[in-house]
User: What shape does this take?
Amino acid sequence: MNTLSLIVPTYNRVIYLDQILRFVEVSKFKYLREIIVVDSDSNDGTSRLIENYKKNFPIDIIYKNVKNSISIKRNVGIKLSSSDFLIFLDDDCVPQKNFFHYHYEACSRYEKSINCGNIFFEKKSTQNSNFINYRNSRHIPFLNLDGEMKELGFQHIVTMNMSLRKKDLIQNKLLFDEDFLAYGMEDNYFGLEAIKKGFKIYTNQASIIHYDYKGISLHLKKLYLTSKNGVKIFKFKDYDSSFKLSYSYFLEHDYKHKNIIESFFTCIIRNLLFVKVSYLLIIFLNFTDKYSSLYFRFIYRYVSATFYYRGIKDRHDPKKNMKLNISNWYNI
Assistant: This one.
């Protein structure tokens, strides 16, 4: 029978990594051969946690430290793996019931298939936070709840909860592009390259709880950095495909609109995006976060678009970088 390897890139998230290892320990999935944890010398006790688990863990734990790049970490995990099927899981995502079964079943079904599972936030968090509710709603159109597979474009690939066959990667020379060193777009570009090589991206029912609760300011930092750095690299590598990304139609200045009316319309939208207004709206969103009656989806969309657009404007000036009280991109 085919075997599974679980690949987890990590950095300073020992609490959630502990929950992942506990899940693996109690799941006792018979085809799971190893878990590969790829770190960058975390200083929060990650290495001690791994050593403690290794003493009595039912499967092999491989622990490796490399440069702090998500693409490099995933590629190292691929190279260290010894199984037929590979599952990729982010270090702030905890698997749910039948996680391994669904991924194993999906990998067994088709060759050159990339299998993306469901992403949820905790129910109590969506009920107690408008921001988390908004983020959770962004995943809903792409969930697989009834077992009916949906085909996804590269824009919606879910690398934080994804599986595929190792031989398909090797035979097609498909890895994560390590030019994406900063935050964002390495996953979408991986999906794009996969589709070019004949892969299909499908949903499956393997679910995770995503423990990313650091607030709207850091979420906007992610959007800004994705736009400023990740999309810039993406456009250099595949200019035409970059215009299929979210926000590109309205916000990219060089989008090829069909006519002058479309171009004029998007120009008006860009001119209505003000960073100072967004900062005031962030204060409002933080203040009303616990009041579900004051949930306004369009405000979240406005501030998100504003910070993404600021990333576009700062893209060609290395001296410009918005300061949002964070020093390390990985902490977001």
The radius of gyration is 20 Å. The mean pLDDT is 93. The first helix runs from residue 14 to 27. Strands lie at 4-9, 32-39, 60-65, 85-89, 93-95, 113-120, 161-165, 200-210.
